[in-house]
Amino acid sequence: MSELHLRSSNLIRTLNKFLWPLLKTLFRIEVKGLENIPKQGSFLLIANHNAGALIESHSLLCLSAQINRKLYGLNHPALFKIPFVGTYFKKIGAITASKDAAHEALNNGHGLLIFPGGNRQALRPISKKDHHSFEWANGWADIASQSNRSQYAPVIPVKFLGTHSVNPIFFSNSLISKILVIPWILKIKWFPVSLAQIISSTLIMLITYMFNWPVFLSLALAYTVFLFTALLPIIPKKIKIIFYPPINSEKSQELSSQQYKEKMNQIMAAKDYADGSRKPYPFNGIEKFMTLHESENIHYNSQLILSFEEHHLDHKKILLTTKNWIKEIPHARTITNTNEFSFSRYVYDQPWFKPSDIVHFHQNQSEKNINDFCHKKFNLSFDPPLRIGFFSEQNSHKMIFS
Length: 402
Known about the structure:
Layout: H1 9-26, E1 30-32, E2 43-47, H2 53-66, E3 71-75, H3 85-91, E4 94-96, H4 99-107, E5 111-114, H5 118-122, H6 139-150, E6 155-161, E7 169-173, H7 174-180, H8 182-185, E8 191-194, H9 195-210, H10 215-228, E9 240-243, H11 257-269, E10 288-291, E11 302-307, E12 324-327, E13 340-346, E14 355-362, H12 367-378, E15 387-392
Parallel strand pairs: 1-9, 2-5, 2-6, 3-4, 3-5
Antiparallel strand pairs: 6-9, 7-8, 10-12, 11-15, 13-14
């Protein structure tokens, strides 16, 4: 029996009217790139998962409703076994995680939300809050690849920044799930110990103690509260939601599952500032640099490296990035006296690298001159301006490009 018809448009409109303004105010939610969701036809939202999972799912639900798009989300079967909770989530578009359910939603022209990292990613410790990638997950890529063979469905990466700080998780593992029993019975393999759990269960113990409740009742209630507050947001941290451009196009419908994974992991693994802009690569004292395809080496006595940031590249999709790191490259310095240096321009249908042409700049080019050159040559305007860095290469050290 299809779960799609259980979705309640009335409930979702109510949430969008009352819950969304509350979330937006409390967590100062900033949304970027919502226009990347198509106005019609099926689409896939692939998002990182954090301790603020409830904020994430409800934010995407409300944002989709605001642009008149139906959104369904794949969820762990354990969710639907919880009385009342399971019913509520079905009414807001939650469907049991399976490839058949996913394809049904897409084949009917709806949006589908997948958190590939699942509870393993959502329940990671606060010390790993910036680890957004989910390279161990495979099912979502199979769904994307199979769906696009019959009809085009844009695969849109969504990154949440700040949602892992709304309820700091100190640690999580499968042992906690086994000790608590119920999570393990529900096949929830990972379970956390978070700040919200500690505070809420402690308060319950204190309140029941004040009213002289029997110890076993106090413990039972504290245990129940501990289970249900694992993902309760309690700290009003600023949140940013970034909808990236689709990683596939109508011309690239035949991408394999592995290609989808590689593209997505490059986006999710990249470091971002709190405002969503990409951190620049380290120059002037470089200890690491990139290796691309090692079959073709081009050696320069000196190499100009331009530091592209994501906010430069939203439309042109030009990015100088890393594939494999070379560690401890010595002799990095700022070039002040050399005949010429080179800039490799990378253009690709995904936001990563492929050489297109080599442009030569003569010595002592300033950042202003290089920005002017890029504007005239490629019609590219950078705000803030492009940063530059230099690398000096000794005979025994190679700079490898494809």
